[in-house]
Amino acid sequence: xxxxxxxxxxxxxxxxxxxxxxxxxxxxxxxxxxxxxxxxxxxxxxxxxxxxxxxxxxxxxxxxxxxxxxxxxxxxxxxxxxxxxxxxxxxxxxxxxxxxxxxxxxxxxxxxxxxxxxxxxxxxxxxxxxxxxxxxxxxxxxxxxxxxxxxxxxxxxxxxxxxxxxxxxxxxxxxxxxxxxxxxxxxxxxxxxxxxxxxxxxxxxxxxxxxxxxxxxxxxxxxxxxxxxxxxxx
Length: 234
What we know:
Blueprint: E1 16-19, H1 23-33, E2 35-41, E3 48-53, E4 56-61, H2 67-81, E5 85-94, E6 104-112, E7 128-129, H3 132-145, E8 149-156, H4 168-173, E9 178-180, H5 183-193, E10 196-206, H6 215-220, H7 223-231
Parallel strand pairs: 1-4, 1-5, 5-10, 6-8, 8-9
Antiparallel strand pairs: 2-3, 3-4, 5-9, 6-7, 6-10
Helix pairs in contact: 2-5
């Protein structure tokens, strides 16, 4: 069995999966944290692997950038491969002074400037939120590992290069912690299809200070976030 975007057979993908946007981060996680990782997907360069972590089966799959892309992968993973727990492990830009470069944010909810929810035909505004059981488990894992985290609202934006470079400040005034580009769609798909989802983010840059990490750092050094996410497979 395969889909237009995933070449895996039924049973190749675990019920718990980590979803980095960068496929090379998926490769890094598989090679550095999983025992006996097996690559099940290379379609469009979106690498996917399954292995074990502390004896538990877990997969990791690149999703690309933006809500349409993670919308496709999460839909196929849930409906065609029976994935139950989807954990986005991504990078984000901090919108708050107290959220520093390399800090970790658990996305309790995902505000958005996208019209992604329109496809569901809802008679109002939908609040995209994480699964509470995964959120609680991630927070507990972070405490156990001694990794400090923030938890709160994040912004899933359709726009990376904004014609109004000050627009983020309005979201910051509402207490939004960070901006990224995928979580809202993941949360909506999971809710609609009966799965669980959580977004864990590492701050790769800051809109407050203009600090920024390199692409290689984003790929290979955000290991605290990876460790927390992998604990959710246990």
